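#lab-general

N.A. 3:47 PM
ok so I finally got the sequence cleaned up, no stray characters, all 176 residues accounted for. can someone with queue access submit it? mine expired

B.Y. 3:52 PM
send it over

N.A. 3:53 PM
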Amino acid sequence: MALDELEVNVGGTSFKGVYVAVLLSFASTIGGGIWAASEFFSRLEAQEEAVQEAVAQADVLAARFNDLKELNTQRLQQYQVDIEKMQQSMDAAGVEELQGKLVQLATNLEQIMDAQKELLNLRDRIATVERTSSETELRVSGKLEQLSDLDARLNRLQRDINDVWLALDAMNPLGG
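B.Y. 4:20 PM
back already:
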């Protein structure tokens, strides 16, 4: 039995096998399109969550960096005051106490250098987080553009489906 000889009766209306095949073809295409859109949206949501997590991490790191920067600035100011006091004391005390003050000054300078190294490490980490955040933002922008293209394609597909329905209605022998 050939496809054009097949006839299906639904509610008193008979459809040729070719029309049923065309209808099934369109239905499977629409189903595939809906599945693809669903998959795309789920992936887009996952990307959005990743971006939000990266932004939150960047904010936390920036806050920690600012806190450490303020703390180190205060330390450096206190060290500067201490150094000035030591200089005044050395001038007032004379050469006999100079050796002890120099040792204390060397200790303070080592602490300052350690604090400065810590700040430099934090600066490098922040730069890495900013770079990662920028890359993520570019990826999200690309996904949004793809989403816009998908929306346009879905609109075109909807118009095509409506046209097919209109054509099927026009071909209906009952005129309904």
